[in-house]
Amino acid sequence: ESVHVTGKPIVMQEPVFKIREIFYKAGVHKSEDYKDLDDHIAVELEFVQYLLDKGETDAAQEFINTHLINWIPEFHATLYFAATTDFYKGLSLLTQSFLFRDLYPDNEQYKNEIAKLSSVVEGLNLAGDYVTIAKGSREPEPEKTIPTHCYICGALCGQKATVRDGILIKTSGLKGDPKGGGAICPKGAALRAQIYSAYRIKEPLIKENGRFRKATWEEALDLVADKLKAADPSTVLYFRGNDWNNWYHEALFDHYGAHKVTHRPMCDNANRMANEHNLNDKRPWLNTAESDYMIFFGQNPLSTSYGRRQVTMIKNALKRGAKMVVFDPRKSETAAAATEWIPLKPGTDGSVAMAMCYVIVKNELYNKEFVENWTYGFEDFKKRLLGEEDGIPRTPEWAEKISGVPAETIERIAKEFAAAKAKGVGSWAGVSQVPNGYEGTMAVQALNGLLGTCDAPGGPSLPFKRKLKSAWGEGQTKPPKNAPPKLDKVKMWAGAIPAMFPKNVAEGKIKV
Question: What is the domain range of residue 178?
Fold first, then answer.
């Protein structure tokens, strides 16, 4: 009812509270065993049956007039024309005939159709206990506010969830939260629409004869397990959801032997992989609240910020005189607000960062104490920068030929950055979504390493990594890892695999 009455594909809206109030007054509630919603058509129709069984004809008619009439006709018209079987067409006609029975009292054709449908229903022998409702009134749960966080993006901003009778009705900012700053973005404010989307899949679906049917978790899991046992692991491709579930997926497919796509140039994955390998943290945030000098490579935080508060911190930093340099091929919102916007050729950020490292090392402007105590591989990196390894010094002139950024600009920015007190440099998807995104991110973060900005005022913060418990339960033996054979038959942009999935399924190259 929520969807049809409001015209929005969102369930658990205001009609549900009204339905529950009527149910509770009548001494019933939706059965816990019935997994659909309170305002589902089956629940509302069975409630009418319950009232009629009790002889409460007036109450049943009132419920029909105030609820069912508002949306059932549209629903059944859609059902009738979309139905592929006579059963659902007949069900649609029968239900509408019941609702509008008073309109056709003397129509013989109508009476004959109803008689036929009634005999069919009687043959189904549906009489028995109620399925969707259970007897017993309930007191609605009082409204309460729960402190939590948003997971629409990786910022994980703190938020307050307002819940009434077990239903989320609103999300708002959490005062004191360091990322959201007491506010949430439009996506966070619309979280309820995502949670209660009418298009969410709530149970497993199995495809048979070209159509999906509902299945139990036991049936679905058994089917998947049987298919995995029968398949060659090296031919299995899998997709996963959010990061919280990743450790289970990694554990399973490490031991199963399927190929896993990890550092694909999609979203900021190359950025994340480089940071995890070099910093043990996938997304180091710059402490812009204390920054005097901030550099962004391929990052547009004023428009696509991870957390609302970061926008405020950057704007406040600029107001108090901090310098912001943005390397970006286009004049983004952040570039437009920057102290200095430096355009460069797409995918060449790494060359500029390496040339800046060259200037810093060549002129011994790096933080020697930090490099000695908190980094590794400096001597090898120095040889690479100076050209002692391959005969190619990573000079500003070298980078200019690649990126188009003038050599004198690269040298000036490098020296300014090295001389600044509270500073930090960061990169994001703009650096990540190119073939050399992994290496480009490493070059950018090398600037932070050389100047000792990590966990320092203005620099990137590196919060501790949480170590999760084993995916294997008590009494379970951890199986040995089964490495799949190397993929050497096809060279492919790994990030394109998901985009090609529908095409490969349609052509029969992938079985689902």
Answer: 144-195
